[in-house]
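Subgroup meeting minutes
Present: P.N., E.W., G.H.
Scribe: E.W.

1. P.N. recapped why we're keeping a running log of single-chain structure predictions: easier to compare across weeks, and new members can see raw inputs and outputs side by side.
2. G.H. added today's entry (103 aa).
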Amino acid sequence: MIDILETGIGGNPLSTSSLKSLAGLNGYTLIRWTLEGKSEGNGYGFPFDRPHLAFARRIHCLQAHINTLKNVQLRRQYKNNKPYFKIDRDLQKIIKDKVLCPS
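Output recorded in log:
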């Protein structure tokens, strides 16, 4: 995975074999970003610190990105997007929770 990141940072084109793991790396990065929402708020405490609200907003944002990404075919094969479909399946349980996501 590190070699993929270094290649991208260097501005070099990715090899065809590295495209296989790109969906997994991207999915992991999006999940980490979503989880960071729980520590948003700089620790000032209630009512200034709203980590649960920030986390819920990031979940909705993650779901929107995943819905877009899971239909992109990097190598003309949906099986390469398997991580996105798994994330989407798990997010459906959360999105359907009317208490967490009333809209």
